[in-house]
Structures are given as C-alpha cells and as structure tokens.
Recover the amino acids of this structure.
DNA sequence: CTTATCTTGCACAACGGTGTGCAAGATAAT
DNA sequence: ATTATCTTGCACACCGTTGTGCAAGATAAG
C-alpha cells in the first residue's frame, strides 16, 4: 500500500483532485475493455485510462478489487434509478412497467453491459446477482401480475418468463455495442424486444412504448 | 509431435479405436468447460475427459487447434442439417421458416452453445462468423421476405432484425444451460422467442409453432 | 503373443499476468 | 514556493498455463 485506499485519518491536506478523476478514468477504461473481453489485463486497462499499470495499484489493491468497484458503481447507479424511474407508476399495467424497466436499462447501458459480462459465469456471479436482485425481483413481480391479468403470455412460469425477458433485453444491449443506436431508437428497441418476449405483438408493443415515451 | 496429427502414410496397422474415442471425449469435455468459461485450461479439459494434459497433445497440436476443431465440428453438424431440416420447405411463409430455424438450433444446442461463446469476442470471431455465415444469410433472406410480405415487424431493417432474432434465440439457449428444459419444451421456447422478437404475438407464434411441429 | 499405438508422469523452458518495493519525477494544493 | 500527493519506471518474486522431450507403462490390433 503506497497510497490511500482508505480515508486518510485527520487529513492534513485535501487529496489532489486528479486522483478521483483518474480513479473514474480507470473504472471507465475497465468498463470498456472488460465489455470486450472479461479477461482483459491490468496493463491494457491502465493504458486505456492513460496511466501505468503501477499507478492502478495506487487506486485499487487488487485486480478483483477494481472489478468489484466497477460492479458496485454500476449497481448503485441502477439502484438509484429504480425509484426515480417511475416503474411502479405504471399502475396495474405490467406492460408499461416492463417498458419502463427497458428504458431504465437503456439509460444505464454502460453500466449494465459490464455487469452482464460477469452476471452468468465466473467468480463474480454472486456479487452481480446480489446487486441486481432488487431489479430482478421487481421484474418478477411485474411479470407475475401481468400473467395473472392476462396481459402477458400465460404458457410460462413467471420466474422463467422474467429471466427470458431479461435475456431479450440484454441481447439488444449487446447488439448496441456493435450497431450504433441513437438514444430513442435504442430505448425503443429494448422495450419492444422485452415486450415481444413477454408475448405482445409488434403493434401492441409499439402502442405501449409510445404511451410510455422515453426521456434521456 | 509424438503422435499422428496427420494421416499415417501407408499405415502398416489401423490406429487403435480408442484413439478416436478419446478424441471425441476431449472435444466433448472442451464443449462443456468452454461453455462455462471460455478460458478454461487444458488441464481442466483433460481431466474432464478422463485423460492427462499431456495426452491431449497427442490429439491436438495446440490449444487453439483444439478449439478450432471443436468449432469446426459444430459448424459441420449445423451445415449438415440446414438442408435436411426443411427450412425452405416453408414455402413463402417466413414465420414458419424462422420457427424451423429455431428448432434446428435447439437440436444442435450442444454445438451452438460453444460457438456462441466465441462468436462475438476474441480471436475466433472470424472463424465462427464464417462457419455460421450460411445460416445467418438464410435467416437474413427469410427476414427480408417476411418484412416485404408484412408477416414480420416492419420498423427495423432486415439485417438488424435478423441479428436481434439470433440474439433472442441465443438468450433461450443460454437459459437452457441453467433451467432444465425437456426436448419439445425447449424447441417451443426457442421458436416463440424468435417469433416474438420478429413481431408476432404469443398467440400467433403458438399457431405457427404447432403448425410446424418438432421432431427430435 | 507380439507389436504398434496410445497414455502416463516427470522434467523443463517460455510466456504473460499479478502484486510489491523503491527512488525519481511530475503535479496540484496550500 | 513549498509540500504532500500522485505518477512513473524499473526491479523482482510468484503463479498458472502452454508446449515439448523422453522413458516407462497400459492397451488394443494383428
């Protein structure tokens, strides 16, 4: 430990402001590279951030520490928006709620992408799963209500359908890393994809989506 | 090279029959482990196959060689079924064609899964892309016909929709690695997921799927 | 049974990645 | 301008993995 990974006790001076700047630069670089290859090296990440590998250890004790911080940051951003984003303001209509969740994901795409890389396999599964738990639980409940109300397809168990909708949304988010999609179009796609997996026709989905709208 | 990676010239004797057996055992083991972690080590793969790491080098010169053989095997299986599977027997109806393609993927799930791991990122992208090209081209054409005929959603460009359908199908195949899905149910899911992304409602998809059917 | 084939077990060099130490340099706060 | 903070560049040890060599053992083909 050559530099403060912890809060300096009764700090005699404020930390340099480029410290926090570089820290986020590293996290951003990690997000980019880990999206392309979840096994990217620290040297690569440091270079992408415009720093040295050695400097990274001034901000994160361990490679795993860095990844953990990255995942935590993403989870916080998403959690902060679950409430603001009026998901539950879609009173009763599960279809609107699903659309709103899709829009939320699209807004946080940068953070969601990297979480998706570690969500399924590898040693970070548990962490990501825990971080995404409230989001998943919300979707699960919405789907259950929708099935009961006959708004969604009724041939699948709620929990399975919820996971499939999640998968459909992620497929779009993944496609977005290759096809340039401008804001509204991307959100529109995520929403219709989710609703399509949920059982709606294209026409129905479009109706719901325009009713919900999308604001950056 | 301690053992024949090549055809023995005027072979004085037939190769032991457990050679071919072990070779496929290695490939199968690789398929299993590489699905879980695309960076699995040779030691792990060898162990999974019930062999030694050293023995693997008796069958494949290189780690990359092994992966390449695995991908090639998968591509061949799929290519062999594109014709047999009466995709184009869905005369004119793009929806049936998409359903049949979904069923084909489900039948070859073991091979498709591992290809999906290397399809998007990493140094094997090109190989996999080339191997899957005919399949993708076929889907691309089907989608184009479907859009023109007003059978599918018309708000997306054909090539983009084709990729999204592919993504939806893969999402289901991925889910299948965690949720045990028995034959017909899995095929049903892949088909409805693809058709849902294509714009059909659940009811429409079900109609198409039952019309197409599924035979193991 | 004899023999070629395949496997094992060990040893070794090479590579890339990680994590750490330390001294010199650059930079922003005060 | 001074000083604490942050970065750099080099050094090193450690680890896991890959690829190879070789001799002894197991196994299936003839």
């Amino acid at each position: 430990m050559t530099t403060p990974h912890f809060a300096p006790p009764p700090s005699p001076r404020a930390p340099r402001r480029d410290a926090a700047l570089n820290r986020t630069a590293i996290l951003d670089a990690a997000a980019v590279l880990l999206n392309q290859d979840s096994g990217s090296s620290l040297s690569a990440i440091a270079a992408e951030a415009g720093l040295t590998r050695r400097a990274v250890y001034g901000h994160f004790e361990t490679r795993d520490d860095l990844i953990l911080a990255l995942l935590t940051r993403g989870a916080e951003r998403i959690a902060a928006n679950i409430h603001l984003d009026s998901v539950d303001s879609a009173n009763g209509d599960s279809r609107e709620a699903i659309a709103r969740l899709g829009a939320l994901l699209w807004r946080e795409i940068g953070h969601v992408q990297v979480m998706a890389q570690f969500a399924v396999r590898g040693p970070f599964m548990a962490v990501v799963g825990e971080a995404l738990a409230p989001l998943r639980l919300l979707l699960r409940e919405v789907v259950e209500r929708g099935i009961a109300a006959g708004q969604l397809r009724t041939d699948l168990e709620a929990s399975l359908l919820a996971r499939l909708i999640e998968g459909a949304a992620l497929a779009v988010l993944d496609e977005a890393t290759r096809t340039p999609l401008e804001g509204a179009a991307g959100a529109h796609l995520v929403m219709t994809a989710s609703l399509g997996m949920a059982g709606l026709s294209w026409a129905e989905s479009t109706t719901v989506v325009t009713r919900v709208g999308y604001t950056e």
